[in-house]
Specification:
The chain is mainly alpha-helical. The chain is built from five helices and no strands.
Length: 156
């Protein structure tokens, strides 16, 4: 990849991590509020926190690497490697954790009567279904964004 392509790739990685931190922070707080209000444990406390921590670490590493590049402390070949398999696997794992959390919610909404109100159960099932698809998509996009050589997944 050329220097410009790798610079663009690094910017998208920063954006992806920032947006993931923002979204997971909002839903993590929401999960905490749900847990305190309903007196039952919301697994989102753990799954969103995993995304929040992972992307915070990744963002810090990207920024550190960017500063070293700007200060000329890395050799040219090393400076052009903003991606890593570790970041790619971490994103895949944490985003799939959230995906499974929402899929579990979907299964509970469809397969049980834990939610008495049918209309509320349908709304919850739709919400969980949409969130499952979106978080699964973000797992794939993030994995591929941080591993541009597509060593984990074949090109779609």
């Amino acid at each position: 990849l050329s220097s410009d392509q790798q610079s663009r790739e690094a910017k998208w990685q920063l954006r992806f991590s920032f947006v993931s931190i923002l979204i997971s922070s909002i839903f993590w707080i929401w999960a905490i509020l749900n847990t305190t209000k309903s007196k039952s444990f919301d697994l989102g406390i753990v799954s969103f926190l995993s995304v929040l921590i992972a992307h915070t670490v990744i963002l810090c590493n990207l920024r550190k690497q960017q500063h070293r590049i700007n200060d000329g402390l890395q050799q040219e070949e090393q400076s052009l490697q903003p991606s890593s398999k570790c970041a790619s696997y971490t994103i895949l794992g944490t985003h799939l954790f959230v995906t499974l959390n929402y899929f579990l919610g979907l299964c509970i909404a469809i397969g049980t009567d834990m939610i008495d109100d049918v209309e509320r159960r349908i709304r919850f099932a739709i919400y969980c279904g949409i969130a499952t698809v979106l978080w699964f998509s973000s797992a794939i996009v993030g994995c591929r964004l941080f591993n541009p050589r597509y060593e984990i997944l074949p090109q779609l």
